[in-house]
Amino acid sequence: MQMEFFPSKTLTWYLARLFVTRIAAMLVMLVLVLQVLDLLGESGDILSYSANGEAQLMYYVSLRIPQLVARFLPYSVLLATIVTLATLNQNSEVISMKAAGLSAHQVLAPLLLTAAVISGAAFLFNETVVTRSTAMLSAWSAVDYGPIPESSGVRSNLYLADGRDLMSARTLTGSGMNMVMTGVTFDRRDEQGRIIQEVRADRATYANPGWKLERPVSFDVEATQVSRPASMTVGKGVTPQKILLAKVDASAENIFSLADSIDAMRTAGRRTSELEAAWWHKISGPLASLLMPLLGAVAAFGLARSGQLLIRSILGMGLGFAYFVLDNAALAMGNFGGYPPMVAAWAPFVLFLLIGETVLIRTEE
Predict the structure, then answer these.
(1) What is the annotated localization of this protein (predicted)?
(2) Quick one: CA dihedral 297, 303, 304, 306, positive or negative?
(3) How far is residue 84 from each of residues 282, 303, 339, measured CA to CA in Å?
């Protein structure tokens, strides 16, 4: 057995090139199929706005593709691992490499190195491209795919409490005294929590204190009467600072801005476990690609003519998909405080790293 972790330079380049081409093929296939299905589901809503057409459909695709790439890149690495290793095994190339003195880890080393590079690229892609496209797509869908207000701080689907009363807005733009809400609903409640008055307005501006509703429509529940005053000020307890902490979309913020949001919410005494888990997952999530060659490695070994190659491939695929299921479950547990944030983000990765190593060592080393 050779003492070096990597095989020869020629063999390393050969395996890495095979792996990369198959990852690209799998990713393109998955993204194209899923994008077509997603566009079929959303095209009706996009085209329901009269001014939208083919250009807006292509704009939607340009915003959606980065999300699909980020989500399904680890799946592509898993499938590419199984296809690559199963093909090498079927062509007896794995037997040749092991006969030359390479261990199972040395056979996998070029794939692991490639996956590590892909994980680093995925992290940069998520933080620079996916977060921006997610924020823009959320703002666009919040206005029913109509014109997006020209503002760098668009927030959508806000729900705010003012004592017993509730205030919601479809979008919010601007900052500080220049904040503007659209699609506003204000529900005034009694001590039993029943709605006694509901006010709706297309637009509201910050009045310091409160929010000035423009041309509101007010419905008095007890009197069952509708009134249309010229303006109305509501929600005096809803301040700009409270709005900034009302809704933080972790998927639309990079790791640095999300850390600042977490600090601000912690200072204000707000619960931050969900956001902390999302922050840690911004690091552990891209590393899923690094884990896939180890989980799919069972497809590389064993005799191809023994009839167990299909079973080994299915086992590798099952391990990979089990990781994704447990990863999502752990995040869900972390969101409501069942797990500490760091455990929720890292436990599945560490667990399946140990499982993959155990399977590889017990069966091949």
Answers:
(1) Cell membrane
(2) negative
(3) 28, 16, 36
In angstroms, the CA 339 to CA 174 distance is 36
As a dihedral over the C-alpha atoms of residue 139, residue 143, residue 145, residue 148, rounded to 10 degrees, the angle is -60
CB environment 177-197: b (16+ within 10 A), e (fewer): eebbbbbbebbbbeeeeeeeb
Residue pLDDT, tens place only, 169-209 = 887 777 667 788 888 888 888 887 788 888 898 888 888 88
CA-based angle 4:8:14, to the nearest 5? Answer: 130
For strands 165-173 and 225-227, give the pairing. Answer: unpaired
Ramachandran angles phi, psi of 50, nearest 5°: -60, -30
Residue with tokens 């979309």: 249
Query: How crowded is the C-beta side of 153, counted as CA atoms within 13 Å?
Result: 15
Q: Compute the distance between CA of residue 87 and CA of residue 105 in angstroms, rounded to an integer.
A: 18
Helices (H), the chain: 9-47, 54-90, 93-99, 104-125, 131-142, 240-244, 255-267, 273-284, 288-295, 309-335, 341-364
Of the two residues 222 and 16, the one the predictor is more confident about is 16
CA–CA gap between residue 43 and residue 31 (Å, rounded): 17
Q: Is the dihedral of CA 105, 106, 108, 113 positive or negative?
A: positive
DSSP H helices, 164-272, are 240-244, 255-267
Structure tokens given for 24: 């690209």
Locus of tokens 């395996």: 15
Neighbouring residues of 340: CB distance < 8 A, sequence distance ≥ 6: 273, 334
Asked whether the predicted pLDDT for residue 365 surpasses 70, the reply is no
Whether 67 shows a pLDDT value over 80: the answer reads yes
Distance of alpha carbon 286 from alpha carbon 272, whole angstroms: 22
Q: Model pTM? A: 0.75
Residue with tokens 């659209």: 182
**Is 323 in contact with 288 (CB distance < 8 Å)?**
yes
